[in-house]
Amino acid sequence: MDTDRKGTRQQRLMEQFAAQRYISIEDIARRFSVTTQTARRDIMELERQGQVRRLHGGAMLANSVEPGELRRRRVTNSLAKDRIGARVADLVEDGASVFLDTGTTCEAVARALVVRENLRVVSYSLRIAAFLREVTDFTIAIPGGFVRQVDGGVFQEQARSFISGFKFDLAILSVSGIDEDGDLGDDDEAEVESVRTAMQHSSRVLLAADGSKFGYRGLVRLGSIGDVDTIVTDRPPPPGIAALAKQAGVDLHLG
User: Domain HTH deoR-type: where (predicted)?
Assistant: First the structure.
C-alpha cells in the first residue's frame, strides 16, 4: 500500500514538474502532505531515474529544453554561429584557462577553438568535452553527475562547488536572450547558477550570441549586460541594447 501511494505521489509530482519545471522541497511537502524528508527521498529517487535533477532547496525537470527545440536551434543561424565561433577563437590566447558554457553557440565556439594550443577547458557539456578530446590535446575537466539526454549537459547539485574550484582567464557563455533592459536570461535555473559561478571566478567574461537573441527575455535572469566584458555577435544589436553596452564599457565584436 505504501509503495502504491509513493508511486502515485511521484506520478503526480512529475505532472507538477511538467507544468512548473522547478518545485521546492517545502512546496512538495505542503502539496502532498508529507515530511520534507519524504519529499527529499522522492526527489532523490526521481533523480536516479533521470527524470529530475536536484538543485539547492528543490529540483527541476532533467530536460528543460525539448529535443525538437534543440534540433531547431542547431540548424537556426548555424552559419552565423560558426562565424561567431571563429571570432571568439581569435580572442582566446594560447594556454588560456577557459570556462565554456553549453548550448549550440558554444558548440560552434568549441569547433573553432581547435586552432588554439594548450588550452585548459572546463565545461559541463559532454558534447563539447567529447569533441575537444577527439581533436585536441587540451586539458579538459567536466563535473560528475547525470547526463541530460537532450544536449549532453552534465548536472549535479554540487556543480557550482566544482566550478568554484577553478580560476579562469576567460568565461565564454551563451544565453537564451538579452532583453531591452540589458538583462541576460536563460531558461534553466541550474545552468544559470553554474554560469554565474564561472563568471565570478573569471578574469574576463565573453558573451557569444547571435542576433536572434536580442530583444528576447529568458525565463531566469543571469545578470546584466554590464557583467560581461565582450560581446561577439553576427550583427549590431538594436540601438537601446547597443547604448547600454556602450555605457557599460562592453567591447562589441562582429563575426
Answer: 6-61
